[in-house]
Design a protein that fits this description.
Elements lengths: L3 E6 L1 H19 L4 E7 L3 H10 L4 E10 L12 E4 L10 E9 L3 H11 L5 E9 L12 E5 L4 E3 L15 E4 L6
Parallel strand pairs: 2-3, 2-5, 5-6, 6-7
Antiparallel strand pairs: 1-9, 3-4, 8-9
The chain binds guanosine-5'-monophosphate.
The site of guanosine-5'-monophosphate (5GP) has 21 residues, from β5, α3 and β8.
């Protein structure tokens, strides 16, 4: 059975990354109001922590949901927006997309494409984790908590088959070996 095997980032490590990211974002936005758009479901813990660390005024928090992964550890193809945001809700606003992890980039690219159609004043991307070695779609992350190798990680909002989202630390799941 596939189980989380070791802690990859402790809650203290994660808090350090979130504080650093908030500082970087604040440095660029100063007092400009920000709309935070989280990509469900994995972002929910990270977004809650990030929002509370930011000094920049958060004008709106909203979420989109994208269907792309099932119970498997690999992408199932092109993602679909299955829950969007109201039309014109971010038109003319500075928008920061908040992602748990960018892997192939397909999900993020679909989200950015969708949000661009809403006419934001600016659109930036923040991801707690980035796996650039897995990239298939060209997506660059403006604010990266940490670049990681090709590990499958869970905890702090990230799931495996909907489990482990509530774990406060981030763990590595080793793939089961087939003999
Ligand atoms: P992408 O479209 O970039 O391949 O995948 C993005 C989504 O896949 C993430 O938002 C996340 O839900 C899921 N994902 C990618 N890598 C991991 C991982 O290491 N662990 C978990 N739990 N989910 C991942």
């Amino acid at each position: 059975m596939t189980e989380p095997s070791r802690i990859y980032l402790s809650r203290e490590d994660i808090a350090g990354l979130v504080a650093r990211l908030a500082g970087e974002i604040d440095g660029n936005y100063r007092d400009r109001p920000l709309a935070l758009i989280g990509v469900l479901r994995g972002c929910f813990v990270f977004l809650a922590d990030l929002a509370r660390q930011l000094q920049a005024p958060v004008r709106r928090v909203d979420f989109v949901r994208v269907e792309s992964y099932g119970a498997k550890m690999v992408s199932t193809g092109s993602p679909r927006i299955v829950q969007g945001i109201p039309r014109e809700s971010i038109t003319g606003q500075d928008v920061l997309v908040v992602e748990d992890i960018v892997d192939t980039g397909a999900t993020t690219a679909a989200v950015l494409r969708y949000l661009r159609r809403h006419g934001p004043a600016s659109l930036s991307l923040c991801a707690l984790l980035d796996k650039p070695s897995r990239r298939q779609v060209d997506v660059s992350v403006d604010y990266v908590g940490m670049t990681i190798p090709d590990h499958f990680v869970v905890g702090y909002g990230l799931d495996f088959d909907q489990r482990y989202r509530d774990w406060p630390d981030i763990w590595v799941v080793e793939p089961a070996h087939e003999d």
